[in-house]
Amino acid sequence: MRTHSASDLVMAEAPAQTPPPRSFSATSLSEADAKTIQELTTYLADNSYDYNSHAQLINLLHRGFQAHTDTPLNESGQPSNPADYPWLTELRMARGAMDSRYAVGEDIWRDWINDESALAHSSEERSAVMELCMRAVQEEPASVVLWSLYGEWVWSTYAVANGYMEGDEDTWSEEDKLICKEVFSRKMVLSVWSQAVEATKWRMDESQVVWNRYAELVMQDLPEQPTSQTIEEVQLLYMNRLQIPHAHWEGTSQSFWPFISKHKADSWEETMSATNEIAAAAKDEHNKREMHELELTKAFRSNDSAALYNAFSAYLHWESKFKKKRGPFDHELRCALYERALLRFPTLVEWWLDYVDYLTTLDTASTGILPLLERATRHCPWSGELWARRLLRVELDTQMYDEVEGVKHKATNSGLLPTGGMEEILLVYSTWCSYLRRRAFTSLATDDDVDMAEMAIAECLNDVENDGKKAYGDDFKGDPLWRIEKIFIKFLTQARRMQEARGQWARLVPLQGHSYDFWAQYYEWEIFVWGAERTVFNLRVEGPGTQPRLASEVLREAMKQKNLDWPEKIHQLYAHHFQTHESPEEIQKAQVALRRSQKALKARRDREAEAAAAEAQAAAPTAQPLSEESVFTAKRKRDDEPDTNGDSAKRNKTEDIAPDDVRTEPSASASAQIKRDRENNSITVLRLPTDITEKRLRQFFGDCGTIFSVNIAQDDQTASATATIEFEAPEDVVTARTRDGKTLDGAEIQVKSGTQSTLYVTNYPASFAENEVRDLFSSYGTIVSIRFPSLKFNQRRRFCYVQFSTSQEAQAATQLHDKAIDGSSRLVVLISDPDAKKHRQGAISEGREIHIGNIEHAATEDDLREFFAEAGTIETVRMLHAANGKFTGTAFIIFSKSDEAQAALNFNNRPLQSRILRVSLATDKSSRDAANKKHGTTKVFEAAKTASPAPEGAADASSPPAEGESNDTAKTKRERTVALLNLPDTVNDVRVHDFFAAFGPIRKLTVRRDKGGALVEFVNVADAGKVSMNVDASSLGPECKVGEVATLLAGGKKNAGATEKKNGLGMRPASVSRPGQNGGRGGRRGGLGFKRGGAGVEGKEQEGEKGKSNSDFREMFLAGKKEE
């Protein structure tokens, strides 16, 4: 009987061909299955390394084979001949193709053996099935299913050949029986089952299946009057079994005692006592693990793959972490658990590595590590790390060049490594090159070994460059960690070829010159060479020419780099080197150069800090409260009303207030905080498991660089998830893309660059939210994220970024560009280009645009054109209006020439109608501030010109208030006003207005960006009461809710929770009634909650005047219903 070593099972150098694409149809295949098979064969013709497609094709063809064999040939009920299955050739080709590339796994092996068993009609075919079984159990040695198939096949063949059971006369000739009688002996049968027992005995869950069958065969050979030796052998068989932890211990024990009672009755009690004593440890170990075993059984029976994975993960974690005292069988049971886990999840690289690490930790010289790595690379041939471990292990175990080279060629020539990405290829090449370097300089090495190593390392460098450009295009700049280059430099150094080594360093400067780590290692190498030369030549005296001048030149070159990631450390190294090694003259020059560089760096850091601070201030909420008068009183002083000098009487105080809480992104430098380039610093990850989490993605990509954000979207069409991951720098993206094709939680992922996959979308209706934008673009592909800009300091921004999973989907969605929406707006849909904003042009940059403030609200465009006509030719006039159509008092005018705009500045402080104008050149900042100067933290809609019509059945916005509300006092305004809390800064005022307009006409809407909310004043108190009673505002934001004005003004988001908890869910407490103005001009100026000389918010209510409570609002609301 021929045996196979594990190394024989590695995929062939030339993988087998997949079934050729053609039309598939048969009565045993459904129309849908036939169509899917045709699609899979076509796909595999070009993508022959897709693991899942191979498995799906095999399973579909096997399903057809089963349907064929189960279908009677005719009315007599005679079964169909399995050999007549029309797609039998394709089924065998599909299995052979997958087997030549991957380990097929327990399930496919089971079906394969069963199918070939049904087809075996000759002694040669029966022997072929036996060899197939042998391959299966060597590939999956812990499989109870495969060992049982193997054992039962050799036993049934033996039984028919020897006449112990009937065989099919059509398939069993006398010649076949004679041949099989010689090949399939009783000794072979027991040998196979004995091997099965040994291979599976530590499987606590199912090992009894194999052992019980073996014990049954042994007992069949037991004579009626066995010898004492035979009795002792059977007793030893049972006692050895009872000392091993397994789930069926009681059953084994119950089958043992009758045997002892029959053949050793006089020592039954003694034997039972001894057996229980030696089996106590086994039972104890089983009891420790019983809870985990139950979880595994439950997950397996539920057919829930995720639950099974979690159960195995928890069990393995317990085995490795949570046992203070090791048990007598811990090693065997832990290895068996790894085998069981990998039987169910054979492509999980992490578990293979954990298994290898565990064995290596126990015994670095263990002979079981190499066979395990051979199986691991068979199951996960795309994993460079597993191949690298195997290369190293072959070197340790064999010390033979041919063996190591053979493994390297199997790894690189199979065509599977590239499916795992460049990182996998680099791991194999770097391990191979390290081996070549070590071998070239052993005591027995020859010049040929040195030459061979040099040629092979240089060839690997070329292969990496070619493979990288093939995978990532011309943007591939080599290994970001330059691993093979380091090995080559060390090789050249050991070969005493220093100038060639320096040439390698010089070639790396354009690629790695931005890295402090690179320069530090380059410098250390030069110091090492200098020190070695001084040691060899015994140079102790310092003088001209003895300093490490080449090391000094390295640091000088490093100081010249403009894009260093850590210049401060280079400065430290530079100062230390010159002070330690150089002459006084050189130290003096270095001090000057260092100080100059430090000053330049400090100036750069100051600029970065200022820019970061400005950005942070623009992103942070202001802390300036708004006075009650500016919100509630009809005669508030205008912020833009001029004083006698013509200047603004009051500037917006928010401009001068620094934010208390500056929130910035995690970054290596201040510049990184202000130069956030999402499109070029992001990757898109496709084909993720549907249950993937952000934490798992951060773990998987964490060592590629600093991760800013992770977005996950479910793709219903492919039953998978897609994620975008934003990194800090483009170099991180290059490293992350090397993970393309790797397996993450059992799924083979695709990693693509995020460039060209994001759309810039603008000019959509102001009422559009994320759902409306998503509906517009959803038909073009998987939308990973939709980002809206912050409106905190520019409330007129109306654009968003829509990111798709691929650049092709984004390009297809640009078809919506210039499409008319709601009859007026025409969409702008463009591929997002982060660099476009760097090249500014237009009227502002050319100095042709002016900014005019403090314009009379009744003024028209014609008034402005006539007023500024004498300055020059006016191209456009842009007057800023609120969403309700009301002019805000700010405008921009573009002239044909910059000289004309300069002439228009002479109109500053001149009157137009009843106001003094403020005129200045427009800038990007002034354009933003214009939209927010007056309403930097508020946005006001007046009822007289509301942009939203009243809902059906509601009073008109301009209709008089209800009876009893004609007295428009501050108190009645407070009763008509509600607050919106926790408003996201991406929701515009139009959406807020439209939401509340559905409940009744609105007199005034004040959006408070600084407080994270809004104040809504209704025309009627009853409408305010309706809104106060638990209105769901989550459509505006997940945490949005209606609350108290006092809650908003006291701190908005920060105190909303506490106030609402105190006051109840959405119900307004009794209003705080403030004292009226009783004359007198002393005391502080009236403001929010204060009157000159009066009490503040915390003051007592005026006598005879009582605020309305929740019950008052409810009564008013019900009364209104009765009137209707």
How do the strands and helices of this protein lay out in sequence?
Blueprint: H1 31-46, H2 51-70, H3 88-99, H4 106-119, H5 123-139, H6 144-161, H7 174-183, H8 186-200, H9 207-220, H10 228-242, H11 249-263, H12 268-301, H13 305-321, H14 330-344, H15 349-362, H16 369-379, H17 384-398, H18 401-413, H19 422-440, H20 447-472, H21 483-494, H22 498-512, H23 516-536, H24 549-559, H25 567-581, H26 584-619, H27 628-632, H28 670-674, E1 682-688, H29 694-701, E2 707-715, E3 720-727, H30 730-737, E4 743-744, E5 747-748, E6 750-753, E7 758-762, H31 770-777, E8 783-787, E9 799-804, H32 807-813, E10 820-821, E11 825-826, E12 828-831, H33 843-846, E13 849-853, H34 861-868, E14 874-881, E15 887-895, H35 898-904, E16 911-912, E17 915-916, E18 918-921, H36 924-932, E19 940-942, H37 970-975, E20 977-981, H38 989-997, E21 1002-1008, E22 1013-1018, H39 1021-1028, E23 1041-1043, H40 1045-1051, H41 1053-1063, H42 1110-1123
Antiparallel strand pairs: 1-3, 1-6, 2-3, 4-5, 7-9, 7-12, 8-9, 10-11, 13-15, 13-18, 14-15, 16-17, 19-21, 20-22, 20-23, 21-22
